Amino acid sequence: MPSSNSSELSPSFILAGLPGLEAAHSWMAVPLCSAYALAVLANGAVLLVVRAEPSLHAPMYFFLCMLAAVDLALATATVPRTLCFYWLGSREIGFAACLLQMFLIHTLSAVESTVLLAMAVDRYVAICHPLRHAAVLTDGATAKVGLLAVARGVLFFLPLPLLLLPLPFCGPRVLSHSFCLHQDVMNLACANTTPSVVYGLTAILLVMGLDAVLICLSYLLILRAVLRLAAWRERLKVFSTCIAHICVVLAFYVPLIGLSVVHRFGKDLAPLVHVVMGNVYILVPAVLNPIIYGVRTKQIQRRILSLIHVTARAPR
Predict the structure, then answer these.
(1) DSSP label at 13?
(2) 188 in Cβ contact with 173 (< 8 Å)
(3) What is the pLDDT of residues 16-34, one digit of tens each?
């Protein structure tokens, strides 16, 4: 057993499993692995289809590619390590690895939030100012938005692990999830965590909170423009171009809000709820986003079906 001083200086953390279902971890990992495989295949298919289909070389679909890449990175930063735990019994994660995983989760979530905001602005310009759409959202502007999203995420969330780095961790270091989140790790420190609490809350409000407000504002302006149209059929046709994006926004923000509520008010909830909500937050957007846009976009449907047809007819 390591001494208390060595534990404080070089701590490791214990990932949370499924309480009461420890004997079935290897079986419970199967749906998690299946969801991860589906996320990888679906998002990979979106990236390939958009690259191969010239009619999809437009800002909205470039943003969709960014979303797919972020979802792939976010799922890959968490799920393989969780599967190692479930299948190999490796519950312990080192301090440096935990901080890196925490940084990636929060940074990639911030990037995804920024991309969703950019997609909302794209819908606003396309509907409310269609003649200016091509001039405003050029390929260069789209690329700059992607770089800005990454820079914003890094700048806002790099301080989180840096604030935790000097803190001592003593006593049991069992996490509430099968991966590392800032609030979860911070609660295990045996020192004053006020600066970390204040900065973490500020970063969340200035990134995800502000993005959510601006997305809602964009849709209020879009709704006002749509209601000015005379015919109901025309209103439905215009607003239907936003349905996929609205669904993707809900798939991101509903699990995010649910996880935040569980952290804030769910101290008396069963540990299983924390584990399940964490996995939902990571995997639901990654699985649903490509499916939503695949269902709503005929070009993506045709390309994927043609790929399946060619693969099925290929000689074995």
Answers:
(1) E
(2) yes
(3) 777 666 666 778 788 889 9
